[in-house]
Structures are given as structure tokens and as C-alpha cells.
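subagent[fold] <- orchestrator: predict structure for attached chain, return C-alpha cells only, no commentary.
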Amino acid sequence: MKIDLNCDLGEGEPLGHTRELMRWITSANVACGGHAGNAVSMRDCVRLTQEFDVNLGAHPGPWSRADKGRGAFTITQDSLVSLLVEPVAALQDIAVAEGAAIRHIKLHGALYHAVEQNDELADAYVKLVHRHWPDVHIIALSGGQVVGAANKNNVPVWREVFADRAYQNNGQLVPRNQPNAVLTDTGTIVDRIKAFTSNRHLRSLDGEVIDLACDTVCVHSDSPNAAELVRELARILKDTTA
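subagent[fold] -> orchestrator:
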């Protein structure tokens, strides 16, 4: 398959911005009521995925809108159930009403990283997705715990690489509260991903080479110049095989 281009959407950005991003991406991760999103934004996003033939995905996150679901966060296996089942079901109901279907699930922010940092949570997450939504695949950090758990449990998973985020030497993302965690220069990001499509490695913030398998590349909708960035990356990735 070709390398996919995904974006987190329905997170409070103007609808015109959502539409412009949808023109270029191939998968949309739609906020479904936790860190962001409501019935109106979910329905708008579902309709746009149909208009532009984009894969529809659920993007559940912590119930913490003040920090956009990116602040300090702890979770148990029991609370993981409530964080996933209700929001994803809400998006699923809207999708069915619009004649669409959820194709994937990608966790958001602090929830994404909490599950990646605990092998028991990663395993519980993968099994929960497979039990409730057996026809969807998971999008998860390339080389991370969730990818390993998905492979172990024979659950389909797409390995994700972030275009607009800096990496640590261990392959984890640099936390957003640290300097230079978010990449902002469009030209630099485009050159970085163009090189990645040839050699399948990125450099960490410290300059270390990180080898990464990749099925999908992520751009955040709130990144500077996100619309220009997805347009350029779509051109690079359209002929690049995962």
C-alpha cells in the first residue's frame, strides 16, 4: 500500500480549515467528545470524509479540554474502557446515520503516550479495540508498545511517523513542554519527510539516526501552515510504498 497521510481533526479548528486539510489527507482522526469535538463537529467531519473519499477514524482522548488533552495524565485499565467506548460509539452512531463507517482508531495526546509507556495498558487497549470494533485497524507510534501488542494479538495496526514533531533518541516524541518539540518550518519538514521516504530514518533532536517503519504520516491540524504542509506531503507520499 501507499504511505497514508493522516490528520487529527474536529478539534475546534474552523470548518474551512478542516475542509482544506481533507482535500489532501487520506485518513482523518476525528475528535469524538473527549479532549474536543461534539455532535456538530463529528457530523461535519464525517460528511467531509465522504466528500473527499478519506478514511474515517475515531480520535478519543482524555476528558480535559482546558489543556487539549495534552496535560499530565494517569490512567487505569478500567478508565481506559470509559475513555474509549462511549466516545467512539458516539462517532460510530453519527457515521452510521450518514452512511459511513469507522475504519481506524488513533488515541490522542496524553492518552496516546500513556498507553505507549505501559505494556499492560497497550495490551488492554488492543484487546478492547478488537473486542468492540473488530473491523477497524489501530494507528500507533512506529516501534512502540501498541504496535508490538497489536502484532502479538493479530490486530491490524498502521505504524505512525510524525512529520511535525521532534523525536527523542529512543524513538519516543519529545514532550510538547520541551523546547523544539514541535517543528514549525514547512520547508524543513518537507525535506525531512522527503528524505525519510528514501531511507526510512529520521534524526532525533540530538542528531541520532532513528530507523522507523511507516504506514502513515501524521500532521496536526493546529501545526503552523498545516494546510500548506499536507498539500506538499501529499505530493511526496502519493507514489511512496509503505
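orchestrator: received. Logging for downstream: The chain has a mean pLDDT of 94. The first helix runs from residue 15 to 22.
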